[in-house]
Amino acid sequence: MKSKGLSLVSGGLDSQLAVRVLQRAGAEVEGVTFATPFFSSDAAKKAAAALGIKLHVIDFTDDEIALIENPPHGFGGAMNPCIDCHATMIRRAGELMTRLGYDFVATGEVMGQRPMSQNKQSLGVVEKSSGLKGRLVRPLSAKLLEPTIPELEGRLDREALLDISGRSRERQIKLAAEFGITDYPSPAGGCKLTEDGFGRKLKDLLDHEGLRNRRLVELLLIARRFRLPDGSGVILGRDMNDNAVLKGEGANGTIVAPVNCPGPTALIPVVKSEGDLNLAAELVCAYSKCDRLEGDIVLRVGESTLSVPRPYNRDKFKAFQIC
Ligand code: SF4
User: Fold this and answer.
1) What is the distance between the alpha carbons of residues 320 and 106, in angstroms, rounded to a whole number?
2) pLDDT of 43-71, one tens digit each?
């Protein structure tokens, strides 16, 4: 009887190859991918469509937020809890595997490709902490690892699995040509959580408003951030698109925007003091285009209007800028 597996699909080449190698080894394969505000599932959807397999998309936001709040194995270079994130994804895929009555979970990991996270020891740690002992297949490096349960049962042909290791991409490129896989992104560094600037914004939100308000987490993807002296956070639009999004967020805080000249919209989720609110008004003026305006900038501040006297000085706010 054919074995059935769920293969993690990111959209990258290795995850696509893993599916094809498993199919060649006699397995029936469906894909699983994850979505959060920190990475999208679009590339995975495109790859699954090209591979002709069903894709299960799991909302991973609550898991990721819990790991950012408390990463058992710590962070990578920025706010990326990669070891725990990866193990939790595999655990979630394992839960789906059990629910669907499937035999194994697979990944496109290649031994030694990333010296820290994909050596034999760390692959073992991920297998152990995901709770999938014996049911986690790495088809691209399987022959270098212990046989898994479906292989031992003879339901997945170990001989058709591979022994790729190391950082060279040569064998993967050849295999892609063999399988006719032509559309894949170049290997990327990671999700938004691996970016320094994004990490600073996220850490600031974690330390002040916290990460439980999903909308505030989603808003991390846009706009500039400032943290004012009494602790009020300001989300300041960078362009018309940001401004339109922030204007729609009135229910989530106080909106500050110019009325008599072009300029950015600011959202203050929680106003901590009148001093901060006045500073936020000055900040919006400092980023407004008022060269042709005679007189002062008039702002909408929540339900009121406020006239802010010149001068408006951007440099004053450098010390408060997070990103
Ligand atoms: S790069 Fe992002 S999605 Fe990938 S394992 Fe790290 S934290 Fe998770």
Assistant:
1) 46
2) 999 999 999 999 999 999 999 999 999 99
Residues framing ligand 1 (Cβ under 6 A): 39, 80-82, 85-86, 190-191, 193-194
Q: Ligand 1: which atom is nearest the Cα of residue 190?
A: 1
Ligand 1 pocket test, pick from 32, 33, 34, 39 with the greatest ligand atom count within 8 Å of Cβ, gives 39
In the three-class reduction of DSSP (H, G, I as helix; E, B as strand; rest coil), residue 306 is classed as: strand
Q: Are 251 and 278 in contact (CB under 8 A)?
A: no
Question: Which of ligand 1's atoms lies nearest the C-alpha of 82?
Answer: 6
Residue among 41, 67, 191, 196 whose CB has most ligand 1 atoms within 8 A, to mutate: 191
3-state secondary structure of 258: strand
DSSP state of 219: G
Report how far apart, in Å, the C-alpha atoms of 219 and of each of 96, 163, 201, 248 are. 30, 43, 10, 12
Q: If you average pLDDT over residues 111-125, what whole number do you get?
A: 77
Q: What is the pLDDT of residue 117?
A: 67
CA atoms of 146 and 153, how far apart (whole Å): 13
Let me know the angle formed at the C-alpha of 116 by 115 and 120, rounded to the nearest 5 degrees. Answer: 75
Rounded Cα distance between 255 and 108, Å, is 46
Of 147, 87, 137, which Cα lies nearest the Cα of 117?
87
Separation of alpha carbons 215 and 318, rounded Å:
26
Mean pLDDT of 29-48: 96
Helix (H, G, I), strand (E, B) or coil at 29: strand
* Mean pLDDT of the region 147-153: 96
| Distance from Cα 1 to the centre of ligand 1, integer Å | 35
Atom of ligand 1 nearest to the CA of 81: 7
Residue 58: count of CB within 10 angstroms of its CB: 17
Which domains can be identified in the chain, with CATH numbers? 4-187 (3.40.50.620), 195-320 (no CATH)
User: Residues 254-283: what's their mean pLDDT?
Assistant: 97
